[in-house]
Amino acid sequence: MSTRWLDDAEMTAWVRLAAVLELLPGVLDSQLRRDAELTHYEYYVMAMLSEAPKRTLRMTALAQRTNATLPRLSHVVKRLEDRGIVERFPCPEDARATNARLTAEGWKKIRATAPGHVATVRRHVIDVLTPEQISQLADITGAILESVDPEGNLSEVYRR
Amino acid sequence: MSTRWLDDAEMTAWVRLAAVLELLPGVLDSQLRRDAELTHYEYYVMAMLSEAPKRTLRMTALAQRTNATLPRLSHVVKRLEDRGIVERFPCPEDARATNARLTAEGWKKIRATAPGHVATVRRHVIDVLTPEQISQLADITGAILESVDPEGNLSEVYRR
DNA sequence: AGCAAAAGGTTGTAGCTACAACTTTCCTGC
DNA sequence: GCAGGAAAGTTGTAGCTACAACCTTTTGCT
């Protein structure tokens, strides 16, 4: 079976996307690290918790919303717990499960951190695109996510 | 100074892009790791070398084309050298500089690996998009790269 | 009921990346 | 022609992620 190589247009798009994949996380991480001693993933964990009812989510749900594996989340939450940013407690309905909750301190921290982070996202992504491109980007990433998602356990937001 | 938060359309695009940033590298890495014991970054290093004249590039040039810092590249190249995939030798014109060259074995390896990798890229990115979307993606990532790029040392491919 | 399999988490560890510190060579101005 | 700084790499190390192994509780079957 013979390989279908990429033509010029496809190659350009792919090379640039690969560069974004390589560079953008570093930009986000270093702003958050500098201003709040957080990684982008840690920020995302806090953000998902802050939007949940009672600022609480089960580990599995949190892992899904943050696009991470459970082991990764477990390690991260432990570190955040040591820093007083989240707390864990057993889930009453299911003795296997663990709930993670954003503490008052964590809530204060993300409120203080959000403006700087949003400004960074705006500066490097949103504000360099036209409204039309933003809509195109949502469609494009939506299509990619559908194919990347193993068995349909994406968050609702990704659904097209 | 007050924060301009993201509206719904902006938020959707950003959340999805963030998910792609988180998930796509893992997909690429695991295919390459499974089939060739390579990370995506290692593959990229080999690919850039394979396209260069004499399959040779100076470390700085290679770092730039692979969107990485020099320390990172240095570590990676050392490991590839230990595996007989690349070799390093001092640059004749500049005694500070080091050249990296793809070995015959490395050349064979990337030729054997490329079809599987391209198939993965097609499956998860290129083939899920229309030709129009591919062109849009190139423009969008081009704009992001310009803003992310610190002082204009991007490869030519990124220029719009 | 009782047992196997699945679901939910945690822990240990190897490996990769970021950051800082350091060495050597080259360039510039005086 | 020679200091001082920039450029090119390398190395050491701390920290994060992936992967595998493990434990406990729940579910499904019969």
From TrEMBL, chains A, B:
Molecular function terms, GO-annotated: DNA-binding transcription factor activity
Residue ranges occupied by any HTH marR-type domain in the UniProt entry: 1-146
Single GO BP term: response to stress
Signal peptide (residue range): none
InterPro entries according to UniProt: HTH_MarR-typ, MarR/SlyA-like, WH-like_DNA-bd_sf, WH_DNA-bd_sf
One Pfam family recorded for the sequence: MarR
Organism: Kribbella rubisoli
Transmembrane parts of this sequence: none
The protein's name: MarR family transcriptional regulator
